[in-house]
Design a protein that fits this description.
By secondary structure, this protein is mostly beta strands. It contains no helices and twelve strands. It starts with 16 loop residues before the first strand and ends in a 14-residue tail after the last strand.
Length: about 190
């Protein structure tokens, strides 16, 4: 009908609530899928560390929050559903923190409580890993566990702004493969499977 189901808001002004939005699946066991909402400007643990909210699909209540690890990390710039990587029957998610040292991070977060399962960095010359372009890609390596995608359009391994896409094992966090851009300015990576 187009009727408003919930009006969702962040905890404080200026946190950029809604920077990223992702369907996660039913975390709470009530038969309704939850939402992950990124707030890259949140400053709970440090200025602009960022935050990810997991909100109930049933009533919009906060299930849990996960905060960025340091100043300027911008956690919540990207968010994506993964499926169950921890084997507990609860869907998990991935969130991006492009301001983290080393060219950005993709964090796999436990759907139950938001705890960090894997801290993923690519092996290139990073620049913006976690800027929206993080997602699950299904079971790429055929081990029965969903795997993780991250795009870094600013990676410079093949020249300034060539970009890079990386796939990591959801089970171990080990990089499975990466594809760099072919030359400067290619900007490979701003796309994802959703």
């Amino acid at each position: 009908t187009g009727a408003v189901l919930h009006t969702l808001t962040g905890a404080s002004p200026g946190e950029s609530f809604g920077t990223a939005v992702a369907w996660v699946g039913d975390v709470t066991g009530d038969g309704v899928s939850e939402l992950a909402i990124g707030a890259q400007g949140a400053s709970v643990t440090a200025p602009y560390a960022g935050r990810v909210y997991l909100l109930s699909g049933a009533d919009g209540a906060v299930v849990w929050t996960a905060d960025g690890e340091g100043e300027g990390h911008l956690l919540g710039s990207g968010a994506g559903t993964l499926g169950d990587v921890t084997g507990d029957g609860v869907p998990d998610l991935v969130a991006g923190a492009p301001g983290a040292p080393g060219g950005g991070l993709a964090l796999v977060l436990d759907g139950v409580d938001g705890a960090v399962v894997h801290r993923l960095q690519d092996g290139g010359v990073g620049g913006a890993l976690g800027s929206f372009f993080v997602a699950g890609v299904g079971d790429v390596d055929s081990d029965g566990v969903p795997d993780v995608y991250g795009g870094d359009y600013a990676d410079a391994a093949a020249g300034a702004g060539a970009g890079r896409v990386t796939v990591w094992s959801g089970a171990t966090g080990v990089e499975r493969f990466a594809v760099p851009g072919t030359g400067p300015g290619d900007g490979l990576g701003p796309g994802r499977y959703a």
